[in-house]
Specification:
Elements (H helix, E strand, L loop, with lengths): L8 H15 L7 E5 L4 H13 L6 E8 L6 H14 L3 E6 L8 H19 L4 E3 L4 H14 L3 H4 L5 E4 L2 E4 L7 H10 L16 H17 L3 H30 E3 L3 E5 H6 L2 H16 L5 H12 L7 E3 L2 E6 L2 E6 L3
Parallel strand pairs: 1-2, 1-4, 2-3, 4-6
Antiparallel strand pairs: 5-6, 7-8, 8-11, 9-10, 10-11
């Protein structure tokens, strides 16, 4: 029976349009995976994929990861998989063991993405799709702002990234959470509401249920959309900086016996923002470590405020000035 309730059918159409745009670049004939928790965002995504994938001649499957962290998690996962099959998707449930590294949220996320990547490789999938929404993006930006971890964290989540060599697509980053819930209602789908999403012990829940509503009340509507726009603009800026770094770094970097060195004069000739990004890029690419802003500024002082200071100990490496170059060497060299 067709559902004619007002305001619901347009929600489903909005989700489908977002999915259609995300699938457009994929080659016909491949297979895609939907990360399905059973919540309204991922369930609306699964329904839209089930509708749009055949039009692109794409096979689609849903993967539900059971973290085993709550009573009844196996039943929740089985219900999600059953709804996926009712939509016409292949479905499988993967049970994972969640460790404790980085806290419960981080550990669960690490286990979940590892499971998704394993299934994607097993099925030779062309892409994995997740149900992150505009609201998730706004929350991510606010959490990054609170950590003070710079523009990289304020970029939020990219519409397309990489997960162990598999494209990871987030089609719903411009779709509100209210829209996905309305899309589920319009499609007769019964989403699961994760009780963890009500637990104020989690920082993201506090942002979702307290911080963002207060901002909307005090500053007016549109705060979430503004935060998402900010993330998109910062990603564009970051892409431009990355291109500048790629063009610059070949001319100013040389391999040294114990690591890598960079021309101090060339670093000094660049604006501070680009100079700092080059320093962070060198350490990340050579030593697979990430510098804080304080550490980056200390290295930059070897360029801009050189007064004979000694080596600077950094994560996994050491920086020192030798003549006209900044040398980065492994910490044990």
């Amino acid at each position: 029976m067709t559902d004619h309730r007002p305001g619901l059918r347009p929600a489903g159409a909005e989700v489908r349009r977002a999915v259609r745009a995300a699938l457009q670049p994929l080659e016909p004939g491949g297979r895609i995976l939907v990360a399905l928790s059973g919540g309204p965002d991922s369930l609306a995504l699964a329904a839209a994929v089930a509708f749009e994938a055949p039009k692109r001649q794409l096979a689609a499957a849903a993967v539900t990861v059971d973290h085993g962290l709550q009573p009844g998690s196996a039943e929740v996962a089985a219900t999600a998989a059953a709804q996926a099959r009712a939509l016409g998707l292949d479905a499988r449930v993967v049970r994972v063991d969640v460790g404790s590294a980085g806290g419960p949220e981080a550990a669960a996320r690490t286990a979940r993405y590892a499971a998704l990547a394993a299934v994607a490789h097993d099925l030779d999938a062309a892409a994995i799709l997740t149900g992150h929404t505009l609201d998730d993006q706004a929350e991510t930006v606010l959490l990054g702002l609170a950590r003070g971890s710079g523009a990289a964290s304020l970029q939020g989540m990219a519409p397309r990234s990489d997960l162990d060599g598999i494209p990871l697509l987030r089609p719903l980053l411009e779709v509100r959470r209210t829209t996905t819930r309305a899309a589920c209602a319009a499609g007769g789908l019964d989403p699961w509401d994760d009780p963890h999403n009500l637990d104020p012990a989690f920082a993201r829940v506090r942002v979702r249920r307290t911080v963002l509503p207060v901002l909307e009340d005090e500053l007016g509507p549109g705060v979430a959309e503004a935060l998402a726009r900010t993330a998109a603009q910062l990603r564009e800026d970051a892409e431009a900086f990355d291109e500048m770094i790629d063009e610059t770094i070949e001319d100013i970097v040389e391999h040294a016996e114990a690591g890598i060195s960079v021309s101090a004069a060339a670093l000094a000739a660049n604006p501070a923002a680009l100079r700092h990004r080059i320093i962070r890029h060198v350490v990340a690419s050579e030593f697979h470590q990430y510098l804080s802003r304080t550490q980056t500024l200390e290295v930059a002082r070897l360029v801009t405020d050189w007064s004979g200071q000694g080596p600077i100990d950094l994560p996994g490496c050491r920086a020192r000035r030798i003549g006209g170059r900044i040398e980065f060497a492994a910490a044990d060299s």
